[in-house]
Amino acid sequence: MKQFTSFVRKEFYHVFRDPKILLILFGMPILLIVLFGFALTNEIKNSNIVVCDFAKDAASQRIINELAVSNNFSIDKSVLSHHQIEEAFKSGKIQLAIVFPANLNDDLLHLNKAQIQIIADASDPNTASTLTSYVNNIVNGYQNELMVNNKAPYQIISEIRMLYNPELKGATNFVPGVMALVLLLVCVLMTSVSIVREKELGTMEVLLVSPFNPFIVIIAKAVPYFFLSMVNLTLILILSVFLLGMPFKGSVLLLFAVSSLLILTALSLGLLISNSTNSQQSAMLISLMGMLIPVMMFTGFLFPLENMPMPLQVIANIVPSKWYYIIVKSIMIKGLGFSAIWKETLILFSMTAVLLTISFKKFKIRLA
Amino acid sequence: MNDVTLTNIKKTYNKGEVVAVSDVSFQVEQGELFGLIGPDGAGKTSIFRVLTTLLLPDGGSASENGFDVVKDYKEIRKRVGYMPGKFSLYQDLTVEENLNFFATIFNTTVEANYDLIKEIYVQIEPFKKRRAGKLSGGMKQKLALCCALIHRPTVLFLDEPTTGVDTVSRKEFWEMLKRLNEQGITILVSTPYMDEATLCERIALIQDGKILSIDTPENITKQYPSKLYAIKASRMSALLHDLRGNENISSCYAFGSTTTSHLNMKMIVLKQN
Q1: Which one, of B88, B131, B103, lies nearest residue A18 by Cα?
Q2: Chain-chain contact of A209 with B78 (C-beta, under 8 angstroms)
Q3: Closest CA relative to residue B90, chosen from A268, A15, A277
Q4: Where are the domains of chain B?
Q5: What CATH number belongs to B2-221?
Q6: What is the average per-residue pLDDT within A25-50?
Q7: Distance (Å) from the C-alpha of residue A31 to the closest C-alpha of chain B?
Q8: B76-100, pLDDT tens digit by residue?
Q9: For a Cys-Cys bond, which of A4, A181, A270, B148 suits A188, CB 3.0-4.6 Å?
Q10: Cβ(A201)–Cβ(B91) under 8 Å?
Q11: Are A209 and A345 contained in the same domain?
């Protein structure tokens, strides 16, 4: 036991004496949270749109006012020919154009039917469809207003409620993803590098020629990173709740419990990588490159997994962060208890068990 | 009684392609200061790693204190001290922290064996709060030796302990080894320097993984068939040129620094009969 505490203390020294490690450990989560919280977002704000109002009547003015009020658009009111609109799209100045034909209001009143044209830049399909649906909503709203005066015989009104995230804030989606990303990356990177460093510096050689049990080496290596990751997690949660206004509906204790499970999964993955490599560089490359892309792709916070082809969905199942992401969303946003997440927890638990067993088996008690 | 025994040890790398050690056998007696002398790549480190249970031999057997290096590796790891050729302590830990750490993992304390390392440790004690990475080469070696000794090993393995250490520190280091040896610790030391060989009780000359001869340093020098000369001059290149032109001389080498003081302008010349 004394050996163990002495080893753990040594590991803490390593961490606190290396500014680079501290920077990665605490700088990366803060940076990612702030980046995803403020800078990188899939909400559409202040898109440049151009309005070509050939009508200049009551109906077109109403719609333009509605558009101007929503903070999704910044409107340029100028009358452009179709040719000029295309030029504007090509130069990338605008994302959407709305064309009101002449006599819009007259057509509406007399023919009960009028057309407006919405042109979007679909080179970014997501933005294009989001923007057109925003405009559509506004036009529909105006149409419903007109109907109040002039009741239609049959009407189906769809009443929409956005559950758990009524304001459709991006942070709600991103924060659990970033939590998964940060915990997984930081833990895998730190543990893998720390063991390989002992090999590279030759200290492993001295450690091996001692009565020290190699299993204790592994566990003692993991302990400091476990604690530091918990600190990290607390930091991320504080930032996201107080800075980004994330909801926190479920049990804090439960979230910490499953997070510690994910940290364990990540630590055992890091151990496995370090047992299979011989230089800090390759350990870093494998854990950064080999982890970053799968975690980004298959966690589900950037690209919805449901839309992926079957083989990719199958691959996503072996990415631990996918399950953690589901768990965090359930606890933080939906406020669910353990009964709702036991399946995902069990999967994470089995992953940890398998990874730990392999890395213990692979741990070399000799040099070659 | 033999403390270290090697019987036909063979070690290859790259699936047998590179033979590092072939059929090496020798014994080291208890309390002996035994030197393994050979150039770089002779197989010294491989032998040390087999003996310290870090590598499995591809053939033959070896034992220390009666424990087999393959079967009883755990027992051996409790008993031997090992100082690798490369400085292998934690550079970001202080002198004191390194020493305490290694004492703890060997289930002992610095106090318990302080008498053994005292003489060496007092020299680096003024720097005990300094990080190991910031020590000079000679002090690093002293610290590494302290750490290798902290659990009072029965056999001490030192792999090229003086490579890259200045002349004064080298001399000091060997004096320390002598004193440790007097306390009854069996010491196996490897070195590429011939001048250090004479400080050992017995030496084994090794080249290309094979033992050339094992004897006391005096006997080995006595066995040498030709006469050796040291020749000094202030202009090394001219000297070398002249000597190489002489047909009575079988070979000659520049030795020591060729750029600094005249004292180092020294040559060893092997003369035929």
Answers
A1: B131
A2: no
A3: A15
A4: 2-221, 226-272
A5: 3.40.50.300
A6: 79
A7: 27
A8: 998 999 999 888 899 999 999 999 9
A9: A270
A10: yes
A11: yes
Chain B residue with minimal CA distance to A204? B88
Could you tell me whether strands B266-271 and B227-232 are parallel, antiparallel, or unpaired per DSSP bridges? antiparallel
Mean pLDDT of A181-206: 88
Same domain for A119 and A254, yes or no, is no
**pLDDT for position B256:** 60
Work out how many CB contacts closer than 8 A connect A with B. Answer: 75
Confidence of residue B187 (pLDDT cuts 50, 70, 90): very high
A56 and A121 share one domain: yes
Residue found by looking up tokens 């720390």 in the block? A194
- A320-360 pLDDT tens trace: 999 999 999 999 888 888 898 999 999 999 999 999 899 88
Helix (H, G, I), strand (E, B) or coil at A94: coil
CB contact under 8 A, B54 and A366: yes
Per-residue model confidence (pLDDT) at position B1: 61
Q: Using an 8 Å Cβ cutoff, are B56 and A366 in contact?
A: yes
- Residue B273's pLDDT is 42
Cα-based distances in Å from B26 to A265, B190, B199, B207 = 49, 14, 19, 15
CA distance A202 to chain B (A): 5
Query: What whole-number distance in Å separates Cα of residue B97 and Cα of residue B84?
Result: 19
Res. A131 pLDDT band, cuts 50 70 90? confident
Say if A39 is an interface residue toward chain B (CB within 8 Å): no
Chain B partners within 8 Å of A6 (Cβ):
100-101, 104-105
Q: What is the mean pLDDT of chain B?
A: 85
Sequence-separated (6 or more) residues with CB below 8 Å from residue A107: A101, A113, A114, A115
H, E, C per residue of B97-125: HHHHHHHHHCCCCCCCCHHHHHHHHHHHH
- CATH number of the domain where residue A115 is located: 3.40.1710.10
Burial B128-163 (b: 16+ CB within 10 A, else e): eeebbeebeebbbbbbbbbbbbbbbbbbbbbbbbbb
The answer to whether the Cβ–Cβ distance between A13 and B92 falls below 8 Å is yes
A175 and A269: one domain?
A: yes
Buried b (16+ CB within 10 A) or exposed e, A301-335: bbeebeebeeeeeeebeebbbbbbbbbbbbbbbee
Min Cα distance A193 → chain B (Å) is 15
Residue A366 near chain B (CB below 8 Å)? yes
pLDDT at position A87? 84
Name, in order, each residue with C-beta under 8 angstroms of A4's C-beta and a sequence gap of 6 or more. Answer: A216, A219, A220
B104–A6 CB contact, under 8 Å: yes
Partner-chain residue, chosen from B80, B107, B147, that has the shortest CB–CB distance to A3: B107
For residue A321, give its domain range.
171-362
Under an 8 A CB cutoff, do A203 and B89 touch? yes
How far, in Å, CA of B6 to CA of A303, rounded?
A: 63
**Mean per-residue pLDDT over chain A, rounded:** 85
Mean pLDDT of A201-208: 88
Residue scoring higher pLDDT (A149 or A176)? A176
CB proximity A6 to B under 8 Å = yes
By C-alpha distance, the chain A residue nearest B97 is A10
List pLDDT tens digits, range B138-164. 889 899 999 999 999 999 999 998 887
Mind listing the pLDDT tens digit for each residue in B27-57? 999 999 999 998 888 899 999 999 999 999 9
Which amino acid, one-letter code, is at B180?
L
- Measure Cα distances from B57 to A204, B74, B208 in Å: 20, 16, 16
Distance of CA B63 to the CA centre of its chain: 19
